[in-house]
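Let us work through a complete example step by step.
Step 1: write down the sequence.
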Amino acid sequence: QVQLVESGGGLVQAGGTLRLSCAASGSISRVNAMGWYRQAPGKQRELVAVKPTAGSTNYAEFVQGRFTISRDNAKNTVALQMNSLEPEDTAVYLCFASVITLGVNRSYWGKGTLVTVSS
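Step 2: predict the structure and record it as tokens.
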């Protein structure tokens, strides 16, 4: 079993910054990718950023250079630095990991951390 635990959400004013962190633990043989999605009330879950272990990082268009994803491969962690936050960024942010565990390729999600941006 693999667990993802997020931290770092909260309330911030428009233009402010937040840093989200996520740690993966459990029976992990290899991490293929880690990243972040978000889901706003009444909207579908959408990609924010994903950073593969091998390959290019993928950012959503709405990030527009405001967010930066980083990983510590040795610790199986991923972080999302969010700058110039806008009220439209208000959502639950969910950590995502694609891993090989017990010989099987699986995807896992964290429970999410709420980010609220006030105008």
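Step 3: interpret the result. The two ends are 40 Å apart (CA to CA).
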